[in-house]
Amino acid sequence: MANKTEIIAEPGKQELFIKREFDAPPELVFKAHIDPDIYVKWVGPRDLTMTIDKWDARDGGSYQFTHERAGHKYRFLGVYHEIVAPERIIGTFEFDGLPERGHVILGTTRFEELPGGRTRLVHQSVFQSVQDRDGMIASGMERGVNDGYEKLDALLAEETGAKSSAA
Amino acid sequence: MSGATDDLSRVFGALADPTRRAILARLSRGEAGVQEIAKPFDMTLPAISKHLKVLERAKLIRRGKDAQWRPCTLEAAPLKDASDWIGDYRQFWEESFDRLDEYLKEIQSKQKKEGENDSGK
């Protein structure tokens, strides 16, 4: 069975979480995040071309990359605050295509070891405002695909379940 | 900010409150009047009415015209916009991680092969 990607963005909050498990040990999943030759292979959907403009994956180093689709370029940049192999990466992230600069995100990605040589990735993004977060999600990272009511069904089911068990 | 984004902000503002989510969950099972909606909550009717107004402004519910009995009905369309909204972002990461899976599989089978070759020497 395919591993499921979980995006948790509670209404009204300035943060979001991305959770995903991998059938590989933390060392490999971690490396895929800091090695530019590997990173370029997987970040973004297949129909985006990715170019690394700058890559200095160490404490205080910075990075820049560009996604391109049908002539549209989307540039992203940031600074690595702390890299602890193979446990965590903490750094900033900014989309250069916004009307103004300064909307910076603080990102923490943790790689937790699971039994059987597997890894759980937990990413937290903290935004400067709820609007910033909602804007980033609404842009879909420049992607436009629908997946229906799933998230909301889950939310409503949760409330309904909580209700009936409380009754 | 575009009108669509304003609408979405109102939807998310409305969804940010647990009481309002519980009200929506109740209405997902069928229409109900204020009294009935208020029953499970330790809240005054005016307080519940306030929550209903927020939901109504976000167009998440519709209220009947009858002055006495104004049943509330769940409106699905804004909820769909709200769930589509997160779907796009999820799709981005889902596709990325699927690609990462492929890479990890490839590199691990390569490592395994090399390991077998080394031990064969």
Task: Explain what the structure shows.
The complex is a heterodimer of chains A (167) and B (121). By secondary structure, chain A is of the alpha+beta class. Chain A has one domain: START domain (Alpha-D-Glucose-1,6-Bisphosphate, Chain A, domain 4, 2-Layer Sandwich), CATH 3.30.530. Helices cover 25% and strands 40% of the residues of chain A. Chain A has 4 helices and 8 strands; from the N terminus they run ββααββββββαα. Chain A is globular and about 45 Å long. The termini of chain A are far apart. By secondary structure, chain B is mostly helical. Chain B has 5 helices and 2 strands. A two-stranded antiparallel ribbon of chain B has the order 1-2. In chain B, a hairpin with an 8-residue loop joins strand 1 (61-63) and strand 2 (72-74). Classes of the chains: A alpha+beta (167), B mainly alpha (121). The interface between A and B is large, with 54 and 44 residues.
